[in-house]
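Interim report, section 4.2 (structural modelling).
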Amino acid sequence: MSHLALTARLDISESVRARWFFVYTLIFGGIVAAFFAFGVTESRVLGFMGLSRLLVTYIQLAMAIMPIFILLTTVRSVAGDREAGVFEYLLALPVSLGSWYWGRLLGRFLTVFLPVFLAMLVATLWAVHKEIEVPWRMFGIYTGQLAAMSWCFLGLGMLLSTFARSTDVAQGSAFVLWLTCLLFLDLILLGVLIQGRMPAEGVVAIALINPLQVFRTGALMLFDPQLVVYGPAAYVIYDHFGGPNFIAYSMAYPAFLGTVAAGIGYWNFRRGDLV
Amino acid sequence: MIRLSALTKAFKKHRVLDALELSIAEGERVALIGSNGAGKTTMIRCILGEYTFSGGLEVNGLSPRVDRAAVLKTVGFVPQLPPPLKMPVRELVRFAAAVSGTSPSRIDELAARLGLDVKLFAHHPFFKLSGGQKQKLLIAIALGRDARYLFLDEPAANLDPEARHTFFTLLAERAANATMIISSHRLDEVAALVNRVIELDRGKVVLDDRVADAPLTGVLTCAVVLRRPDAAIAKALGEWGFADVREGLEWAGRVAGADRLRFMGMLSRYVGLLVKVSLEEQHVAALKVVAS
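Predicted structure of the assembly:
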């Protein structure tokens, strides 16, 4: 087995044993279980019912929970391991830095993405079993978007971990990053628009840069295009780009951003002190 | 050959290694001593490629920063503080063996010789092992492959006397084909293991001395006679595995050859109680110390 695969496997088994993973899995599994328990599949909102209603609600909750969870657990784990002396020992073994860094990233990606995906998959299989109609296109798009968002925030988390010299600084930076993304969702963008202090192009640009807003807009593209549902920036984007194009962008951009962030993190990891 | 030329490492404005010049030839067993903050760990981390530095550093002609994996393939390392790894013992052994190109069974065998049954603790998280068990496993991982360079940071600090003896025997088995750097802040801990002593102080070499080779193997039979029974020395001798032969007045036991200085260091704390001490190398009656 290659060193990259060995490191990925090591990170997966470390994560699976960690308390955060237990909580993380419980939350997403619990959300799906709660949806079924409270009959979300039987209710109708804005034309969505059955499994599509469940998926829409699920993706909105995932957007709220996943990024901060991924950011905090990644920076805690990486910066924490360095502080505790884990790096001093494991990086004295003959594993290349590339295998170590990208192996950890890959392992962690699987541990953060799979519980979210599997919860969604279980819901879908349950729907198949109960002969509820399954919106397969929506399922496929949400899977891609969730994977892209996981990768994006994982890359950002790795980037922060390589620059921060302590767990406290890493956690603080992760929280500030998440808060910034959250603040520049449609809510703030709407305020900026109303105040008229920024041209509409600037507002849309921010909406296209903010991965959280991109994810939100992409997920909303499956709704009926109404301003009240989308929010102003997302509505303008929909109007300008069209649904299918933006859905593709909502997967490509976060994946690209995550890769670039992870790449810069790797560059910084290699050039500085490892411990 | 490890060659350090004008090796300098600074954290912000604080120079921890100050233009260090050093060459360590194949087969040397070096005690790296110095007080806390002298630069011992920093020097080892530089050689392991974990720190950036200015100046030159080569391990067998290779740079540990550029040719990381190639250099580390030849290195076995035991850190001073065991890492708080959550992974089970079996997984750590498998991972270390796989990346180092050795077999887990070889590590298991060495651990068993040190008194640690890896199978028994296979599913225990590493961080939940006792200090001694962690040390034994890390030593087994470091020695369980064909490393040409061994970096041991206070390696025997947590070992019981029996395990120390085995550890010295293991080092003796590797002495012919491995270069060893054993770091400690106390010379008596490592003096008998080495043939060269390097002392660092504020990032510079302040002492570089060759010492006579002491046999790493061998066992000394030892008898201690006390003026009167005493709880403190009884406890200390008990920790060395000595048996009470006569109502706390006479004690008998065995000391690993390489541990003789450390043992005598322990005895020196109770010098007022000693009536007679004898140390005799088994098979060869070469050394006899009598104090009365």
